[in-house]
Amino acid sequence: MTASATVRVMPADEIVARGGGETPFLRLPERSTVFAERAMRLRQLAAGHPLADYLGFVADIALAQQRRLLAMPAMPLPDAAALDCAARAGRPPLPADGGADPAWRGVLRELLADLRQSAPAATQPALQRLAAADDAFLDRQADALLSGLSEGLDVAAAPLVGAALQVLWTHQVTALQARAAEATTGALRAAPFGRIDDKTVCPCCGSRPTASITRASVEALGQRYLHCSLCSAQWHLVRVECARCGSTSKVAYQSLDAIDAADDDTARVAQAAVQAETCEACGHYLKIVHGDRDPYGEAVADDLASLTLDLLVAESGMRRHGVNLMLLFGDAATGPPPDPLGRA
Ligand SMILES: [Zn+2]
Ligand SMILES: [Zn+2]
Q1: How far is ligand 1, taken at its centre, from the CA of residue 228, in Å?
Q2: Could you tell me the domains of the chain?
Q3: Which ligand sits closest to the CA of 233?
Q4: Which of 13, 20, 121, 326 is 20 to 30 A from 150 (CA-CA)?
């Protein structure tokens, strides 16, 4: 029996809320607050920040995402046979590489209408391009983003496309979980999500993480979760293990305080709320946001606000593993990070 098949027999409401001191494997996004909390964190980080305008705009995007998520109509979801098939194959039940439901375009157009007033001048041309684009162009943009390909991607428009896709997948994940929790009998009561064969990608949608985050809650104090760049689900991964290649022997940590601190102030370095977990075995890094040091830490927001850390780590030749749909990096993040407002 595979691990995924074993997990599937657990009732849906238990997988995210198991007592007895056992670390829950999955933390699913909270439908009522997921994007609103991101917006709040972005506003908090924007105060006095060199990228304040951009962080403020992403906060506006997140608030618009929250409104759209709460207004999402019912959508077709995988049936019990499809869920079972995915589990047996060790695959995520809502795979991003399967393409987006056409409903995503409606979400995008509503987001664009919502953001027209507040978008910075530098973002207006991208907004207008998307508003005028036909379905085929939009689907090509979505496919490129979901498959991680930069060819043909309208980079300036990508955060808006990504925002719509995040709403769609977060909706599907929470709706699928709610359906299982509400089912009283039968195959639909089985937990729709569980471990999959590839522990480096999201068990719900198969996307790469934005960053990892440690928990401050009592039941999971200090436990590390990877935060999905698409659906905002979080899955457990033990600490001091590379989130990309699984190596445990070549993992080290870098933080901004390493620059600021005089004379090897290791105590300060150890306390940084955002660090880069670097892996010499594969030459990549993923940021880790310490929720136990700053309880308001949020993967997407704290990743954007710590771009300077990417610069520091890039100097050592490490490549970025995390995906942030609000700010795309090139394939090789060895140069400076992209300008968030898309200026030349
Ligand atoms: Zn996901
Ligand atoms: Zn590695």
Answers
A1: 5
A2: 2-22+196-320 (3.90.1670.10), 31-189 (3.90.1670.10)
A3: 1
A4: 121
